[in-house]
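Fill in residues.
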């Protein structure tokens, strides 16, 4: 599988193949042969060249392709891009009843509000920008519709999981 990870420092091409508990990966041109286990949801153990590394991964509920990964005491935010999904039909994140909530994945600060109540938005349009861990994350609309409410206020501190806007 080929993916791209977007970070604050640019793009990293990723290619991997999973066979049982082993993963062969090429990340930014470097090859890795890893033994992988998931002892609990969202927590992964990687064994590489006799060393064991623990990582946790949290998916942003508002932007399903955004992940925060903790490794070696540091947190990193990634947007994963799957070229195959970009070409697909993409019903993706739209909810069956045509209603969506834009939520934060982690505590942060609202940097910009890009849409106001009553604005029309397309799926993938930016709605709010939140800064967390020195990275700015644009929270995008998972559906095409109209912005119903915007509770985000520029400069305000927000908690993880807080609803910042609704789209219908």
């Amino acid at each position: 599988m080929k993916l791209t990870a977007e970070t604050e420092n640019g793009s990293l091409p990723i290619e991997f193949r999973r066979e049982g508990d082993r993963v062969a990966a090429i990340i930014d041109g470097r090859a890795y042969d890893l033994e992988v286990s998931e002892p609990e949801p969202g927590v992964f153990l990687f064994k590489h060249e006799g060393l064991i590394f623990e990582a946790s991964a949290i998916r942003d509920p508002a932007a399903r392709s955004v992940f925060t990964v903790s490794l070696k005491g540091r947190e990193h935010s990634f947007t994963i891009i799957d070229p195959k999904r970009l070409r697909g039909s993409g019903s993706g994140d739209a909810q069956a009843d045509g209603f969506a909530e834009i939520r934060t994945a982690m505590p942060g600060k609202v940097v910009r509000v890009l849409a106001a109540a009553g604005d029309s938005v397309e799926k993938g349009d930016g709605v709010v920008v939140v800064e967390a861990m020195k990275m700015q994350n644009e929270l995008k609309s998972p559906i095409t519709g109209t912005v119903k409410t915007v509770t985000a206020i520029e400069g305000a501190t927000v908690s993880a999981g807080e609803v910042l806007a609704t789209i219908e």
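The radius of gyration is 18 Å.
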